[in-house]
């Protein structure tokens, strides 16, 4: 389903094994131990921004999962979910004298940076979570610009989660206007305006051929089998050989032209929600491929670009086979990061506890472990109490 951020309560999160599974899915596809810089511009990975090292008045920068764990532990971190074609910035000139612990200082990268790297989202430019916003905080990610939008700022009704896979915001739809043509047929819901209802019926009449369309002054449909006007019993050169006759060019079907010929339109307003496998419906003819490149959305033709494909790859990796992954499967993606932060904090605290016992020569007893967890609970209650004041 579409990537969503929602209100989160850490107590509710930890009480649900299914939610805990989903919390780690977004991180399973990224390496938690090794900086991703050497891999170049990674097709998709979990990306973070560090407000401690690169505050809002500095140049925007992003770091990989491993660097968040190793280099920026305890810093003020913005989770950015995943970004495509991103190279880790940790330790480059944007960080001043800060040194990456996993990788030598690197030159500046050619990443794309948005206001998300400042910790703000949506057309309203607000942070998430927003302490000043008392309304529903659900946010949905655009698969093109990868910004997050409040559902109330999408300019359209929000489809039910089980009906959709991805969302494209209005601004990105207008940057690739041919997507509106596809939206009239396959988006959720297909809000269609037909200028002449009778014309649509005629277009869809079974058995109608291109000659009939030509008489009405319409474009031909390239999806139809060509009508053989030769006498019965004769076959064309192409039918006999499977190749066009010498000196002729075989017409390549264009799904976009076919949809345009049907005369269906969708109101070009608001974000658009797309069903599962919608990318497979996009035309891949040479002309359309050029249009995708010109609009900067050629990645839409890559089925492995989707979030679900990224998470599936992660679950096939060794990290994804960790016993914890048996617990995770249905949490929104901000909750995922909140849980992983909590998990990292817990493991850090346990490591510090064990190191302290070792340095003091103490034996780790059951009573000491119980006391340790009681202190963690008390610390959490104090933080919760302070946050409610």
TrEMBL record:
CDD domains: PHD_UBR7 (cd15542), UBR-box_UBR7 (cd19677)
SUPFAM superfamilies membership: FYVE/PHD zinc finger (SSF57903)
Keywords: Isopeptide bond, Metal-binding, Phosphoprotein, Transferase, Ubl conjugation, Ubl conjugation pathway, Zinc, Zinc-finger
One Gene Ontology molecular-function label: ubiquitin protein ligase activity
Pathway assigned in UniProt: Protein modification; protein ubiquitination
Organism domain of life: Eukaryota
Zinc finger (UBR-type): 33-105
Organism listed in the record: Amphilophus citrinellus
One Pfam match: zf-UBR
PANTHER family in the cross-refs: E3 UBIQUITIN-PROTEIN LIGASE UBR7
Protein name: Putative E3 ubiquitin-protein ligase UBR7
């Amino acid at each position: 389903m579409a990537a969503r951020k929602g209100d989160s309560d850490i107590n509710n999160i930890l009480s649900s094994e299914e939610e805990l599974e989903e919390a780690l899915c977004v991180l399973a596809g990224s390496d938690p131990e090794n900086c991703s810089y050497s891999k170049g511009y990674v097709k998709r990975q979990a990306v973070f921004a560090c407000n401690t090292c690169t505050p809002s008045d500095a140049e925007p920068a992003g770091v990989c999962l491993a660097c968040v764990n190793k280099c920026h532990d305890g810093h003020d971190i913005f989770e950015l979910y995943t970004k495509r074609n991103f190279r880790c910035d940790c330790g480059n000139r944007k960080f001043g004298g800060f040194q990456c612990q996993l990788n030598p200082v690197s030159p500046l990268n050619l990443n794309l940076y948005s206001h998300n790297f400042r910790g703000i989202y949506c057309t309203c430019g607000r942070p998430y979570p927003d302490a000043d916003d008392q309304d529903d905080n659900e946010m949905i990610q655009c698969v093109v610009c990868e910004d997050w939008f409040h559902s109330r700022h999408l300019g359209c009704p929000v489809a039910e989660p089980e009906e959709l896979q991805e969302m494209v915001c209005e601004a990105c739809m207008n940057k690739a206007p041919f997507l509106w043509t596809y939206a009239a047929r396959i988006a959720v819901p297909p809000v269609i305006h037909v200028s002449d209802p009778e014309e649509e019926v005629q277009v869809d009449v079974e058995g109608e051929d291109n000659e009939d369309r030509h008489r009405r002054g319409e474009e031909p449909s390239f999806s139809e089998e060509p009508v053989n006007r030769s006498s019965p019993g004769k076959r064309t050169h192409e039918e006999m050989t499977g190749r066009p006759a010498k000196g002729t060019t075989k017409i390549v079907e264009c799904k976009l032209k076919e949809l345009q010929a049907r005369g269906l339109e969708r109101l070009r307003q608001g974000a658009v929600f797309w069903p599962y496998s919608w990318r497979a419906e996009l035309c891949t003819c040479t002309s359309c491929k050029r249009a995708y490149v010109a609009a900067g959305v050629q990645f839409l033709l890559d089925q492995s670009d989707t979030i679900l494909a990224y998470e599936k790859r992660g679950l096939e990796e060794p990290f994804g086979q960790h016993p914890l992954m048996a617990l995770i499967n249905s949490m929104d993606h901000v909750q995922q990061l909140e849980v992983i932060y909590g998990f990292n904090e817990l493991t850090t605290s346990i490591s510090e506890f064990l190191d302290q016992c070792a340095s003091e020569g103490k034996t780790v007893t059951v009573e000491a472990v119980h006391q340790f967890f009681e202190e963690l609970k008390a610390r959490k209650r104090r933080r919760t109490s302070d946050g409610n004041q």
